């Protein structure tokens, strides 16, 4: 534990509590928007077409329905046709329309409807749909092996991982975010319906209460441990840093070194998902001083110990009256901070989840972590390794699922489709 005992760590918490005051909780995000402009209200539509897919730098909406698919067809043409059909449906649904041209009630009565109907009468609610391609899509089935990006190599096994294979991986993923949970569920349900016979659902996850802000117009939200989450997150206003840390560049290359191997991903990103179950009941019996020492921030204001405000830069050199660091070597904020990893950053947009309770009455709850980055192996992996090896918070959490996906650039117009450059 980097030369500091767990008991000593808890002692540092009290000093941090005394150093900063309490704050208040902002409970609602501001309106959904595309990469550059705010929508007028949470009911409004987010533009679907653009240089980058919506749902990445889009200010995080309130609700999530994430799904990973296994591709069951072995026919490349069928897969392309599915992606074209999905793109057309996504373009419609994100604008508040029904998934198909004839909708839920406008087709032939003897045939299944073009839309499942549960979102009839509901507005677009800021819906965004974002697709990703998993490493397994680049096997021998579709002739894509030579176009697999080098950064799409499997993530390593991290210390303490308790991953469930059935909740991890996937050939394809779709992230649906919206301000209305029924709109997000409707979107995923219709994509699964359209994909019947060509894909099957591997796993899905509902989320609520975003755990990151992706715009400075949004207040920092809280996770189920009660702490503000994602204070140091990348924001859509950080244009230069987005180019450095988020969007894949042409020179990032392919696994075989070919100049044109992964050019299809230029302008895209890499998506990492981790389902992190929290031992809520144990955490709730932990003292406030101990909780704050583990995180390295105050629970009220969210300020790093030794600072007054949430967005004050943590001073990791500052000492307390006893001569020890106010922020312990094993505090979460120190281990995760960009300054501990050569300045690398990620864009996080995770969500809380509660999936009922287990047989002992304990909540099956926690954080569905989502991050976007230019290269997960250079950004996510070093941070997660540090956390897995040293973070005292590991006593209260368990990682049960994991995924890595290449997220293609945006759909330019109605003649384009998700992943077109990959299959060209």
Q: Which structural class matches the secondary elements?
A: alpha+beta
Look at the structure and give the mean pLDDT: 90
How many distinct helices? 9
Order of helices and strands: HEHEEHEHEHHHEEEHEH
Structural domains: how many: 1
Largest sheet at a glance? Answer: 9 strands, antiparallel
Percent helix: 10-25%
- Strand fraction equals 15-25%
How big is the Rg? 22 Å
- The total count of strands amounts to 9
Question: In terms of per-residue confidence, which ranges show pLDDT below 50 for 5 or more consecutive residues?
Answer: 1-40, 255-260
Shape label: globular
Report on the structure:
It is a single chain. By secondary structure, the protein is an alpha+beta fold. It has one domain (6-411). The protein is 20% helix and 18% strand. The protein contains nine helices and nine strands. Strands 1, 2, 3, 4, 5, 6, 7, 8 and 9 form a nine-stranded antiparallel sheet that branches. Strand 7 and strand 8 (363-373) form a beta hairpin. Helix 1 (6-19) packs across helix 6 (288-295) and helix 2 packs antiparallel against helix 3 (181-194). It is globular and about 75 Å long. The N and C termini lie far apart (51 Å).
Question: What's the topology here?
Answer:
Blueprint: H1 6-19, E1 63-71, H2 76-93, E2 128-133, E3 172-178, H3 181-194, E4 199-210, H4 239-245, E5 269-278, H5 280-284, H6 288-295, H7 332-336, E6 347-348, E7 351-357, E8 363-373, H8 380-390, E9 397-407, H9 420-423
Antiparallel strand pairs: 1-3, 1-4, 2-3, 4-7, 5-8, 5-9, 6-8, 7-8
Helix pairs in contact: 1-6, 2-3
Protein name: Deferrochelatase
Function: Involved in the recovery of exogenous heme iron. Extracts iron from heme while preserving the protoporphyrin ring intact.
Catalytic activity: heme b + 2 H(+) = protoporphyrin IX + Fe(2+)
